[in-house]
Each structure stands twice: as C-alpha cells, then as structure tokens.
Amino acid sequence: MTTKILRSLIIALLIWGCSNPKNPQNSMDSIETVMDADVIIYGGTSAAVIAAVEVAQSGKSVIVVSPDIHLGGLSSGGLGWTDTGKKNTIGGLSRDFYHRVWQHYSEPSAWKWQEKSEYGNKGQGTVAMDGENRTMWIFEPHVAEQVFEDLIAENNINVLRDEWLDRGNGVIKQDGKITSFKTLSGKIFTGKIFIDATYEGDLMAAARVKYHVGRENVNLYGEKWNGVQTGVLHHKHWFKSEISPYKIPGDPSSGVLPLISDQYPRDYGQGDNKIQAYCFRTCMTNHDENRLPFPKPENYDPAQYELLVRMFDTGRGDWFEKFDAIPNKKTDTNNHGPFSSDYIGMNYDYPEASYERRAEIIKQHEDYQKGLLWFVANDPRVPEKIRGEMSKWGLSKDEFVDNGNWPHQIYVREARRMIGEYVTTENDVLLKREVPKPIGMGSYAMDSHNVQRYITPEGYVQNEGDIGVSPPGPYSISYGSLVPKKEDCQNLLVPVCISSSHIAFGSVRMEPVFMIMGQSAAAAAVLAIDQNIAVQDVPYEDLKNVLTERKQVMTLN
C-alpha cells in the first residue's frame, strides 16, 4: 500500500469519526470514496481549468471537482464574442487559450459553413483573428470547449463531473483550514489547498468565509458608481420614450404589466441586495443547413412580452444590433436595449438559493428567453420588418447538441463576492490608488447590466442599474483580492468570486480575467504548499517571480 493511499484512508477515518459518529454503517462507503490531492479545485469554469493546468504543470497533484458536465463555463457556454478590453493585459495561460483558438481556425477544416475569407475578421477593437500575435478572440462554443478538454487531457488532470458540494454539512475545517469537503454523491476530497472557481462561490460560503451579495452603499468604499443608480442613463438599455407600465395604458387600477416592479428603488447611492440581470448567450444562425427554428416553450406566455410590443410601437428598430458574428455564420447574441434577453429582477435569490431553487430560476430564464425569441419571430404584433427578419434565424444545430441546442451555462454575471484581505473597488479600476501585490490586470469598462425595472414618479416604466464606465487605462488586481481574511480560512483561494465591490466586479468579471486569476491563484497555492504556509503569507516576491516566468501581465509600467 502506497503512502498516499494510506494517508487517504487515515484521513477518511478521521473525517468519518468526526462527522458521522452515529452512522457507522456508511464507514466503508466513506473510505472507498475518499480522494486526495495537493490542490482540490471546485468548479468547472474557465478559471477552474486554467488553475488546474497551472497546478499540474508545477508538479503538484490536482483534482477538479465540477458540478458541471461541460467545462469552460461561459467561455464554452455561448460567450464567444470575448470581452477583452486591452489585449496586451492578457498573458500566461489565458493568452494561450486564445492562441489555441487561433490554431484551430488556422486550419481549413474549421470553416464548415463559410469560407474563412467570408468571415470578415471583425472583433473588439481589433481583428478577431490576429495573425501577428497568433491569437483569436471570437469563436464558436464547441471550439472553446474542445480547447479546455485538450488542456485537461494533455496535462492528465483528474476531473470529476456532476459532483455537487454538500453545502450544508460537507465542508470540514480544523484550525482555520479546510481539511476536506464532501459532495452529494458521498465522495470526500482532501487536500492541502482548495480553490473555489465557481461563479456562485459555494465552497467559499460553506467554509464560512465572509462575502457580500448585492450593491454596496457608495459611502462604504468611497465610490460613485455603486449602489442604486436611478437617473443614470448609460448604453442603450433604458426606455427613451414614455411608456405606460399598466395593463391598460395610463390606468393604474388595471394592474402592472409583467416584469415591472411596483416598488420604487431606494435613494441614489444606497445599497441593496439586488444583483444585475442574467441571461443566456445564445448561439444563433440564419444559415438554413444549420438552423433549428426557435422552439416555442411549453408554458409560453405572450403577456410577458407586452412591454416589448409597446417598445416596438415607439419606433425602436435596433433589435439585431447585438447579433455579434462568430465564425461559421453564427452569433453570440447578447442582451440589447431596454427590453431584451436579460430577465431583469428575476434572479435576486439565486446566489444563496438551494440547488433546487437555482434550477427553477435557470428554467424560468430559459423559458422567458426562448419565449422571447419565438415571440419576435412569430407574433403578428411585432413589426413585420423585424418579425420577417427574425424568422430567418434560429438556434445552431451543431452547438449544445446534448441540451436541445440551448447553452448549458446561464450567464451568472454576479453572485457572491468575497470580502477578503483586499477589496478591489472602483478606485482601483479608475487608477485612483496604487494596487498592492498585483498578480494580473483588467481593463474592461465597469459594466453592470440592469438591476430592476420600476415605475417612475411620472407613471412611466424605466430600468435602473445599467452602468458603463471605462477606466482611463488598464489596472492591476491585487493578490489580496484572491484570499480570504486569515481568520476566515488559511488554505482557500477564490479567483472568480473575488474580493470586490459590485461596480468594480463589473469590470473584473470578464472571462480572460477569470483565467488570469485562476492561474495566479494556482501559482500561489503551489508556493503555499512548498513553504507550508497560509495562502495569506505567500511571499509576494516569490509569487511575482513565478508569474513573470509564466508571462503573466501584472503591470504595464
């Protein structure tokens, strides 16, 4: 029997003895399901995969425990029109991901539904396929997923899928450290360092690490763009015309239309427990050979879209502006305008909800968005020009083939956010203060989607919470935002639900940045193991040297 197996058996017996003293009949099952590694990563996101690669390439053992079956989160879940910001801030394994995408599309076989020359090569601020830098920033979902799977296979990383953390009693801590966690299937995972790479922060929360949900008051961190933002009109996601929110226009006694709150928002700048809206990033096509007409959901309710009809009646005609072109005549279609795919106000309880309740919320979002697509393509109240064009579109048959061609990942734009050693705020993003211990960079605008839809004092419908404020330049992200306060937990790193204010997270929450944070967290985990210290005590110069070797971009000075 090897030392490692013996260690696992001993730990399993200790865990069972502490956590199941009245259930001896399950002892053998517990022993058989214990798995041990230097680093245990919980999550199936892009950050989880990149963190695992960094651990493996550093010579440590790693297990990825993923509640998801498909790896990559939003990067493989429909978000192919990458929110990059300044691409020179993206280094390390994050940049390698986009290099691998470039390699794929460099092959003629990648272009099934169109010629490479037809694509147009348009991207975000630069070309999508950058031959000079050998990167590609816009891609099909299945291509991204294959890149993640290749990284897992090449590095012989052990991934357990469809494994859900026991959020109630599954995390065991001793002397300020996580010793193990258990999944609902009964498997127990032991390790030296743990990484929570989920969008929700479930391991972090179960480990009793402090966190925040919702928007902070502007005074808490000395910010301007946090809290309730009534009267702030950014982007195009607000009602420019006076539209009645009532079932009978102008008659409050008739009742309020669906998806409009009858509660007026708090005062400007006040905090609340509300979060920005979710949606699915749908992969659509108007190429008939690969097109599936939009399905009509079983519980389709056209009344949900009455407000959209009234919006169309005002003359708005920009419905197709966010059908962003990705290769092979497909789109990454995102929310656009005051009434679109964002299911505003219907996700407030998602971060803390049970798995069962989350599944309900996700299904409600799916039904709403499928119904929206079917409505615009078929309902005679939609202007003929828009309806006729929309009927030419549908879901891509060759994407998400095991999920009815619908994305397997809802866009969790924000859930829990850790309150760690250092809180990233808009003052970091806007370059108003020097960031200590930088381990990566961001550069995208502070981008919050709408949080609520309400009735103005004048009796019209309006949205609130949409913010878009660009930083004056790229900004650094502190290592302190990846680690909890030491009194909360000494062997946990959190590269997705990082320690950040609501509005700063609006910039941080981009997939390239999550991958950057994943690699930096993993590098710190390896150092903590080698030096047998808490993650908070990792010498910054050691971490900086490792990340420099990995070509991570920490500053542009």
Notes on the structure:
- The protein has helices at about 5-20, 25-30, 45-55, 90-105, 140-155, 200-205, 305-315, 355-380, 385-390, 425-430, 500-510, 510-530, 540-550; strands at about 35-40, 60-65, 130, 135, 160, 170-175, 175-180, 190-195, 210, 245-250, 250-255, 285, 290-295, 325, 330-335, 395, 415-420, 440, 445-450, 450-455, 460-465, 465-470, 475-480, 490-495.
- With about 550 residues, the chain is α+β, with helices and mostly antiparallel strands.
- Among the domains are: about 85-140, no CATH class; about 285-395, no CATH class.
- The model is unreliable at about 1-30 (pLDDT under 50).
Could you name the key traits of this structure?
seven-stranded mixed beta sheet; 13 helices; alpha+beta; disordered N terminus; single chain; 557 residues
How would a textbook summarize the main sheet? 7 strands, mixed
Fraction in beta strands? 15-25%
Cα-based radius of gyration, to the nearest Å: 24 Å
Round the mean pLDDT to the nearest integer and report it: 93
Assign the structural class, choosing from mainly alpha, mainly beta, alpha/beta, alpha+beta, or little secondary structure.
Answer: alpha+beta
Number of helices: 13
**Low-pLDDT ranges:** 1-31
Taking the alpha carbons of the first and last residues, their distance comes to 53 Å
Q: What is the 3D shape?
A: globular
